[in-house]
Amino acid sequence: MQNEWDIIARGFDKTRQRPWKECLDFVEDRNGNAIDIACGNGRHLIPLDRNVKAIGIDMSPEMVKIARENVRGVNRKNISFAVGNAVYLPFKPGTFDFALFMAGLHNIRSRSNRIRALKEVGRVLKNDGEALISVWSKWQDRWRKHFLKDLLMPWKKSGDIHVPWERDGKKVMRFYHLYGMMELKADVRKAGLKIVNAWSVKKASRKHADNHFIIVRK
After folding, report:
1. Mean pLDDT across the chain, nearest whole number?
2. Which fold has domain 4-217?
3. β-pair type (211-217, 194-201)
């Protein structure tokens, strides 16, 4: 079966052109080796300092193809890409000075795999290396009522949901695990990472935060 992210890659690229401010703030003045896990179309790699040697990795070959095109379009020769799974990163321990894991952790099925992916972040970071991670919030405006109902059904895997993508005549259901902040912190700690800072923001929601951000250190 074709990866759902391959199917929507071109449409996704059109809607994700600008890097988030949180990412720009995190990478400012950083140097060394960097990795962007679940890099998508590469938008968060392009702003990196040209002295940074960076690699983006994504499980969707089509996303990686588009990311390469976008980077080539701005002549960024310090950035390369690979197809790979965040749960099994193909890099040696202590390879990277810092990492990005933007809006990708929440697409991994099962808590055990999400924690494994977080452990992989720690494994490939150098000692005292830091990573910026973002996930969708469970309590955002769009899904708040849905997950409040789940509180009455504790046997359900609360947080798991399929989110439709409808664009350019395509309708694809994408798996997401939406997080509460306490749960995100618990998973980070379970993976052996230290929390430097954590906060929530509103990107599209009006009342309740729809994205959680957390900076972690190995």
Report:
1. 92
2. Rossmann fold (3.40.50)
3. antiparallel
